[in-house]
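Supplementary Text 2. Reproducibility record for the structural model of the 339-residue chain.

All settings were left at their defaults, and a single model was retained for analysis rather than an ensemble. We include the record here because the model underlies the residue-level annotations in Supplementary Table 4.
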Amino acid sequence: MSILSRRTVIAGAAFALSYGLGAPQAWTAGAVTRGPRFRLGVNLAGAEFKKIGGRWRWPKLDNLRYYLDNGFNIFRLPFKWDRLQPELSEPLLEDALAGLDEIVDLATGAGAVVVLDSHDYGRRDGQVIGDPGSTVSAADFADFWGRIARRYRTNDLVWYGLMNEPHGEDPMVNLTVQNAACAAIRAAGAKSKVLFSGVSWTKANTWLRSSNAEVMLQVRDPENNFAFDAHQYIDQGVGGAPKGPARPGIGSRVLEDIYKWGRQHQRQVFLGEFASGQYPASLKELRALVAFMKERSDVFIGATYFAGGGTWGKSPNSADPVNGVDKPQTLLMERFLPK
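Retained model, structure tokens:
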């Protein structure tokens, strides 16, 4: 165990007792434990942000090493499509991809999964991808993912997160665009996991009330190796900016509907974004949320907290340490990692 890991264990014990969660214990599986291994990690934010100091950048490798050292085993890597492919249907930008290659090599070399995430909300240049009249077509999007897949097709630990939080578009357009991208990924020879996103910001708590519960059953993957990327925040407002502590019980119930849907239709779910603030009530519900998923790994294959990446450590929602001090959310999640 590294010095950093020993420090985390000691701090974790104090944290757990402070918030009434009991001393850290080895994970004991619940009654429902079938299915694939449940992976837990963070988003490495940065490449999807507006330009910082005149230019954008990838998250620093030291930030990734921090999470690897503490046992996290999956990383969602958001980026803007046009930063990797400035011109539609033209070659990818090698200078931009060099930083991505470094992250992929380090993470997957340690046995972690990297989820490549086109963080574009179903749009490019302000236009809905694939919409009638749009200058950005489903074929353009498929071309991009085909090129990415040819680059990483031999690495089964690279997963393809097709689109972050589509919203405000026709659900069938969203489905058509993502089906085309998946077909291009498979045509390029990549066989690893593809993640599809629903409309309405792909929210887990509204999955059944939106069109997603019906439309997304029409996903087509020649390899039949796909899952759905859903997002869920738990503080009041259930958005990325908390408006107060989590309501009691939300952590153990907010994913019930999408879980039952997944079981009914034999579909897998990946929680690509979730987070909480540092209120004691929120941390209690965060623990319940992660426990709910891990006990139900027949549907939930993994989750990535939003966010790490080294760009906003002082935010109360961030998982990044500040001045060498671990965040309580991070310490809590470490209790669910393999020992």
